[in-house]
UniProtKB/TrEMBL annotation:
This is HGF factor. The keyword Disulfide bond applies. InterPro entries: Kringle, Kringle-like, Kringle_sf, Pan_app. Residues 98-131 form the Kringle domain. It holds the Pfam family PAN_1. Keywords: Disulfide bond, Kringle. SMART domains: PAN_AP (SM00473). The keyword Cell wall biogenesis/degradation does not apply. PROSITE patterns: KRINGLE_2 (PS50070), PAN (PS50948). Residues 8-94 form the Apple domain.
Amino acid sequence: EGKGKRRNPLHDFKKTGELMLIKVNKTLEVKTKLLNTTEQCAKRCSRNKGLSFTCKAFAYDRVTKRCHWLSFNSLTNGVRKKQDHAFDLYEKKDYVRNCIIGKGADYKGMISVTKSGIQCQAWNSMIPHEH
């Protein structure tokens, strides 16, 4: 990258406008703070800075300029979607992506069966195939 140019932290997130996630499962964690930009929210989520959980998404309230960091995303059990004009939802692409890039070492998606419906082999297993 060029000198003085910084990578936009939002690049790692999928944006869905006017959507908020509501946790039905009370064990899921959320932390909020006033921040001026979505870039600041994204940077903290990516680094998990000041969070006691792995940040998988954040919702930004455009009205109050409040960031809501989430330990879950739209694919997590115990979560429902809510249409809300004040919010934009940003989900880490690594957690909502249902495809494997490269060798799949960083894959964090939910797919665990092949295209033909066969259960995937666990990463820590050498049966039925060696890696």
